[in-house]
Every structure is written in structure tokens, then in C-alpha cells.
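Suppose a colleague, Dr. K., hands you the sequence of a protein chain of 1011 amino acids and asks what its three-dimensional shape might be. Before reaching for any lab equipment, you can write down a predicted structure in C-alpha cell form. Begin with the sequence itself:
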Amino acid sequence: WACRRIGMQADPEALYQVLCHSYGASAEDRRRAEAVLEGADRSPGFPGALLRISTECKAEPSVRLAASVHLKNQVRKWWAPTGDNFGTGYGDADKATVRDGILSGVATCAGAPGVRAQLVETFRLVTLHDFPEAWPDVVNRLLAGLTSDDTMQTYCALLLLRRLFKQLEMRPTSRRGDLEALSAALLPTLCTLAPALASVAGQLGPHSPEAFEMLKLVLKCFYSAIHTAVSEDVQRDIDAWMAVLIRAVELPMSIPGASAPGASQAGKCRKWAFHSFFRLCHRHGNRRRCVNGAEAFAEAWASRFAVPVAEACLREACSSQSGAQRAPKRSVSLALLCLGEHCSKDLTYSTLRPRLQQLLEVGMFPWAKFGSEDLRLWREDAEEFVRRSFDDATSYYEPRGAVMELVQRLLRHRKDEVLLPLLQFCRQHLDAHAQNPADPELCANKDGALLLLGSMGGELQSLDPARAQKKKGKAQSTQGVPGSAVSLEELLRNYVRPELASQVAFLRLRACWVYEQFAAKLPRFGAPGVARDTIAAIFQLTSDPELPVRVRACTCLQAFVERRNDAEVYRAIVDNLGPLLERLLRTISEIQCEEVAFTLETLVSRFPQEIIPFAAQLIGHLAAQVCQIADSSTGDDDDEDDGTECAAMGSMATIISILQACASCTDPSNGAETQRRMQLFGSIAESLLPLMGRLLHPAGVDFIDEALEILSYLTFYGPSPIPPSLWLVFPRLYQSVCGNPTPSMPLPAHLHDGWAPDYMSNMLAPLENYITRGPPEVFMGGAWAEAGLPYPEMVFRIFKKVVHQPGLGSEKDCASAAKLSAVVFANVPAPAADAWLPLYFDELRLRLPKAQTAVLRRAVFCTFATMLWYNAELLLLCSEERQCTQQLFEVWMKSIDLASRLADRKIFMLGFVRLFQLACSQNLPASVTAGLPHLVQQLVAQSREIIRLRVKGGGAGEGSEDEDSDVDEDKLARRLQKSSQKPGDDADDDGDDDDEDEDEDEEDKAIVTCP
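The predicted structure, expressed as C-alpha cells, is then:
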């Protein structure tokens, strides 16, 4: 192990031995080798040695691969480190070594594709930081590779150039300088190279697969070059490039005798040609969508190339769907999307018109109906089948979605010509299936016909006689044409409703899908009882043996739930509400489907009162499912994690909707009803506590908004005193702001000081509830035993950390921290909080001069007013000791107009009243006594404003800058006012105002602390 000092000398021979040991049989050797490699980070010469080993043809393949992976990781981590490691990466000499050798190194890895892939990624990382400033000659070196007589050099240059183009592809037009310079230098060479590659590919010889692969790279580079805009150089060469694209889609779809990878490259080559076609049709060839200044090019391109492109797309869509010449699905999807773009233009539509029937029968319908690939996917991976069926972007890679979009485009722009033929075509297939419902082919055809009918959507509804009767004054363009009237009621009754009980699973699914398209806006279902029977049939399918049918049945019910003023549908759903909820929960547990979760949320929102008896059970299931998703999420598969996160978000939204429904109180004055609600929230809290523990943690930061909202409901509507089990969540709030890990609540090292101080605005409501409904005496006497921190100390630390957060964007959270301090003194009776008043006062006094927004300044002055009301003598003592009394009140009086709302003015008034009470006992400091006349004037002015605002309605005043905080300030004012009334006081002289306050209090209860 003399090579352990490799980090100091980067000897390739020694490094090679270390890499060999890292794959050795001895665990000890592997451990020591890995330690040596780890210690070699940033060592001079280390990247160069790794590159030499990676490109050494005589080396062991596994060692070469290991060296290339280490090189990639070194470049990613130490080429241009950021954060704490900024400026500590590799020096210029090491970087130059890698830049000089990586292009030729990629070409030497022809027999090691794994190593080559790692080096190509290393090249991308280097250019990410160095191109073009630190590596300007890379363009000339790539150009030399493209023009080389060595095919492998050309291929590797294309690989690297593709990575470079891809890296610059998404830059906006304002930052396209590097991309346009690269395009000007290399695209002409690619344009010259492409026809030669197409010629070799079209010969179907032994070199065709390689030619297709290289041509594909050329087309991908061109697509990246035109993604956001078409440069002037490309505009000049557009004729040649369009010839390349059209030639590419005319090449054979498969290569006789070629291996599967060769055939795959032919299909991918076509796909990228159609990608460019669609980009040009949709963006750069469309005057309305092109970038500013490119209108002339858009018109010129459309006039010259729109028709040839439309013809190419027609050929692709109408190509044979079976056998050796089957078109790739991606290219067909893009071709159909291009045809959709051409529907609105007379020039290109004239090309489509004679072949519309062929397009429908050959290019669209075979993809629309249920096919063999659908059946295979259904059987092998039903969850993936469900995922694809709900994918909004499916039209870009699944022809079925593109067919639906093309139908909608045709109806939007050419309704008079295509609607009736399309209806007749679908009717033929529906009638044919009715004659022989057991024929598998006819079943598939019916599925396609129903898909086309469902895609017509509003256009089909506009032909319904029942709908036309409601809009007699609106003439239809097809009125009076035989067969133009389409009764959705009859269509559903004759062709869709029977399939809910079909023996064919995909027809059951399609029937649910059709109801999902039309049920929400259908004028009527037919005779009384039809809607009830239909819902019952769909309800039965929620327990279908096939998962895709169950999921679609669940989502279909949402369309029925969304119907308004339909008593029959309402009663049918309510009568089966319990079993329906159970089946929705079961389906959500089987598959994390966002759409099913949304159906459940819609059901809860639509039937809030009816859902309450099932609330505890529902929330328990949903909370357990969110916890299960959190346990199963590994982070290894981003796509899968995105899907599960959406499902978890839907479940969280449903939980909040249920809590909101439970919070509603039909009679707030009914003590028994209020008590039942309190008990309900108490039982719900027990099932939500494990979820709160997971979400109020760094790993649950994506759901912290929802978690805090849930906690607000639990602490506001649950029992008071707050149960000990719910107090266990309080330290989680403290940890999120201030950190302080403990053995039972550990935190990652970099989060020991907190991880969510910027959520103070969301955190204010539950913190306030803990103080006010704790109740205050429990809050003042309680402590977090494990950390040895009293609750008042925890709240003060939260306040202190947040109120001093710098930056204009943080001032809303700072204002929330100030309001939190006001909550303490508005609710804790004197003298229990006397020891804390000087501490809070000092922090607010230091923060006030730095405040930049009215939101924060108003919150600070409202807190000072609350402190005055709590103990004016103590506050003045603090200000006198710090010699800031006069300064404080001068600034306060100058900022008096910040109190623009009724609640703000009430708080200020109550604080100023305390000063007059002290004045009567001659306990005011001289600096305040001198200002009493001005204070009297302010009291008069504020009294008049309060009267004006009460007459106006007592709502939001003019000039309010933070409407989200209105309810908090209203509540604070009411509490201060109530605390000023001694038991037995007669308030008859102000009875009207008190009644108004009570009304406002009851109306705001549901939103005071629950958004």
C-alpha cells in the first residue's frame, strides 16, 4: 500500500492498482482502496491520471469504467465548487489536461460504450462551466472531428456536439449568443454531412444502422438550434435543412436483416425529424406564435413548406400499422399533432381535405381503438396502464392522445365539413357491435368509436335537442341537416349504459370514461330513475376485478358529484356515501392516483355536512396512506416520486376539506353542538398525530403548509385545555425555527439551527392557539422536558430569531413574529408575563428602526399598544431605563396613520387609555406628560375614525397592506376589549357596538386561525 499517497503524486500506475483493489475480492482491500480514492480528491494530477486510465485500451474494462466514473464525479464536485468549497477546486493545469485529452479520449472508447458514456457526460460538465470563455477552441476541435475521414472521429464529434447543443437549447432569446455562434460555426457542416448519411442509411447495407445513428444526432442538434428561435444563419439555409428533414422521413422505417438496435435508430431518426416539423409548424412557422421580429420568416416558411410538411405527416399517419413498415408511435403522434396545426390554414387544409376519410380510417382510428399493445400493458402492468391513461402530456408520445387532439382541432376549425361524417363513421361501428357484441374486433372498434365521440365534447353537446331547447335563440350551423341532431340521452342509453355491465373489461372502462366526459353538463339522463341506476352501476364497478376499471369508475363519479340542482343524483350519492367513501379509500391505497384523491376531495367539498359522520374514519385512512407514501418514497425514481407526491398532496387537501367541514357549526350558540365538535376534533387529532410528526420535519417540508393548517384546526376546534398528546407537537414547531435536536427528535447536522423560519406566517395560527387555548396558565407553566425548555422560553426564542430575519422579503414573517409577542401579552394575565416584557421590548425596539414595510411597523406598534394595555407602568419603566420613551412615542405618533383598519385603531386606543389611567395617578414620566395634549388630540381623532369605520361596516379599512393579517388583529382587539370589562360591569351604554363585536367574533371564529 505504498500507493496510499497517490493523492499527493497522482501516479497513473499506482492509481491503476488502487482501482483494481477497489474491485478485489478482499473486503479489507476494497475498504482501503476506497479510502485512498477519497483522500485523492482535488490532488494535482488526479483528473489527468483518471483520464489516462479511462482511455487506455489495454486496461481492464472494469477498471477503465471505474476510472471514468471517478473522473466524472471529480469534475462534477471540484471543477467549479460552490458554497463553502468555493475557490477550492482544481487548478488551471489540471483543467487544461482534461480539456486537451477528453475529445480524443472519447474516440478511443469505441469498444467500451460504458466508458464513452461517462466521458461524454464529463465533457458536458466541463463545457457547462468553461464554454465558451475558458474553452473557445472546442468548436474548432469538434469541427475537425466532423470533417475527419475517420468515421469514429465523426461519430464521437457528433456525440459531443449534441451534448453541447442540448446544454444551450433552452436559453431564451436574450441569451442565445453562444448558441447562435455555435450554430453559425457548425450547422453548415452538419447540413452538408446529413445528405451523405441519409444516402448511406437508405441503401439498407451493413453500415445503415451507424448512418441512422449519426443522422439522428445531426437532427437532434438541429432541433436544439431551433428550439427557442431560428437564427439568421439557419434562416438562410432553411431550404437545405427542410430537404434534409423531408429526406429523413422518406427513409425506410426498418432495416431488413438489421438487429433490433439498428431498427430502433431508424425509428428514432424519424422521430427527431417530426420533432423539428412540429416545432416549425407550431412555433416558428406560425405568425402568431413566433418570436418577435420573425414574422416574415414565419410567413415565408408557411407558404413554401407547410404543404410538403402536411403531406409528409399524412404519409406517416396513414402508413401501415402492422408488419415491417409500421411507423413508430412517437413519429405518428407528432405527425398527427402537426396535422392539427394545419387544420386552421386553408392552404394546408386543401391538401388534407381529399384524404380526410383515409386519415380517419387508417391514420386515426387504428390508434384510437383498444389494441394488442394496450392489452399487453393492461395484463403486465395495470398500474402503468392507469398512469398513462391520466397523463396530460400523452399526445406527444401516444398516438391515441394525438388523435383526440386532432379531432378537437378539426371540429374547432372545420366543423361544417367533418362533424357529420365523423358521427356517421362512429355510428357504423356502434351499430356493427350491436349486431355481434361477442366479436373481439368489433368490441375494439366500439371502444375507438366511443373515444372519438367523447373527444367531441362540447360540439356533441351542442347538437343535443334537449340542450338546443334551452338555447332557442342560438342557431346551429348544422340545423336542419339530416342526422345532425344527436341526443346524448339516447346515445348513453343505447350504446354506453349497457357496457357498464359488459363482459369486456376495456368496454366497461370506456363506458365510465364517456360518462366522465358528459355527465357533469348533461341536460338530463332520461326518465326518473335512470340517473340513480347509472350511478348504482358505476358504483358497482368501483369494486371491479380489474384495477383500471375500478380507478376509472372512481374518477367517473366526480362528474356526477359536480352536477348542480339534480336531486336524483344527489340522493343516489348520499344514500351510498359510506360504501362509496370506503371504496375510494381502498382504491387510493391500491394505487397512488391523484385523480382518485381529487374525486374524494370533491366529494367532501360537495357534501360537507353529510361527510361529518365518516370524518374520523376518513381522516384515519388518509393519514395512514400519506405515511405509507412517505415510507415508500425512496427518491431514486423522480417520475415515480412525483406521482406519489401528487397523490399525497391530494390526500392532504382532502384531510383539510374534511376538517373544514367538521369546523362548520350550524348553530354556534348551541353549547351541545359546540361540545360535540370539540370531541370530534379530539378524536381526529389522535389519528393525525403520527402524520404531524412526519410532516413537521425536514423530510416533510413539501407539505409543511398543509401540516400547519391541519394543526391550526386541531388546536382551535379541539378540546381546551389542549390534550397532552397534542402538546407533543409543540416542540416540532420550535425545532423547525430554532433547531435544538434531541435523542427522540434528531436533526441532520446542517439543520441543527432550524429549517423553516420563513414559515412564521403559517406558524402563527397554531402557536397562538397553543397560547390562548392551552390555556395561558398551562402554557406559562409547561415545558419541553427532554430539552429542558419552558414553553414561554421557546416562544421567545422563536420570536427573537424570526423578528431579526434580514431582507425585505422576510418582513411579513417578522411581522408575524411581532404579532406572536402581542398574543402573549393579550392573553396571559398580569403579572405572569412581567418578566418577559423587557425581553420582548428590547428586541422590538432594536428591530423597529430597520423596518422597511408598513406591515412590520404596524405590527410592532400594535405590540407596543398591547404591552401598554398589559402593564403600562412596566413598559414605561423599561423605556425610561433605556432612555427611549420620548423617541418611541414621537415615532409612534408620526406613524399613527399606519392604523388604517378598525382593529388597529382599537388596539391603539386601548393602549392609550392605559396612559390616561396612569396620568390620573400621576405615574407618567415627564416625557410622556408633556405630550398628553397631543395624545388627547390623537384619541379624539382615533375615536372619530373608529365611529366612521363602524358605520362603514367595521371591515377592512382603506390602505390595508396585509389583508391576511386582518383577522388576527381583529381577534387581538376583541380580546383586549373583553379583558378590560370587569365581571358585573354594565355595558348598556355601548350595547350596539358590543353586539356588533360579538357578531364579528362568531363570524371570524372559523377563519381566525384557520386559513
